Amino acid sequence: MPHESLPLFYTFHFYFFGIAAIVAALLFVTRKSPVAAALWLVTTMFSLAAMYVLLDAPFIGAIQVLVYAGAIMVVFLFVIMLLNLGHDTAVADARGRGWKLAAGAVGIAMLAQIFVLTRAQVQPMIPPDYMARQVELRGAIAPIAGPLFNEYLLAFEVTSVLLLAAIVGAVVLGKRRTVPDAG
C-alpha cells in the first residue's frame, strides 16, 4: 500500500464510521421497540470504538466495546427483559408530532453548532504531542486510569451506585406479586 494513500484510507474510514454512528443513533431514538433500540445503540458504540482506533487510541476503543457495548448494554437488555418491555403491545409510543418537531429543531441547532465549531479557528487546550509523550513515559493505561481513580473517583463511584440502584429498581418493578389463595 503506497504511503500517499494512507491518509485517504483513514479519512474514508473515519467518515464512514462517523456516518454509521450518526445513522445508528438516529435509528436508536426512533425505534418503538426497546430491544431494537438497544441493538442500534450497540451499533453506535461499535462505530465509536472504530473511530477511537482510527484516532490512534486503541485502548479507549477497547474500553468502549468492553464497558459500553458489552457490560452496560447487558444491563440495559436485562432491565428491558425483566420489565417485559420487549412486546410492542405493552409499550405505548409517547412520541407525538410535537415531540418529533422539537427533536428535529434540537438536531438542526446541534448541526448548526457543529458547523460553526468546525469553521472556527480553535486552539487546542493541550499540546498535540502530549498524549504520545505520556504514553511513552507512563504506558497507555496510566494517563487514563490515574485521573479516573484519583480526581474523578467520587463521580466513578456515584455512577456505579446509580447503576446498582437502577438494577434494584428494575427488579422491584419487575417482580410479579402473587395474591395469596383465600381458600
Topology:
Layout: H1 5-30, H2 34-54, H3 58-82, H4 97-119, H5 130-138, H6 142-149, H7 153-174
Helix pairs in contact: 1-2, 2-3
Question: Could you please describe the fold and organization of this structure?
Answer:
There is one protein chain. Residues about 90-95 have low confidence and may be disordered. The chain is globular and about 55 Å long. It has helices spanning about 5-30, 35-55, 60-80, 95-120, 130-140, 140-150, 155-175. With about 180 residues, the chain is mainly alpha-helical. The termini are far apart. It is built from seven helices and no strands.
**Average residue pLDDT:** 76
What is the number of strand segments? 0
Uncertain segments are 89-94
Largest sheet: none
Radius of gyration from CA coordinates: 22 Å
Q: What sort of overall outline do the alpha carbons produce when their principal axes are compared?
A: globular
Tally of individual helices: 7
Could you estimate the helical fraction of the residues in percent? over 70%
Order of helices and strands: HHHHHHH
Instruction: Give the strand content.
Output: under 5%
Which structural category do the helix and sheet elements fall into?
mainly alpha
Quick take:
Helices cover 73% and strands 0% of the residues. It contains 7 helices and no strands.
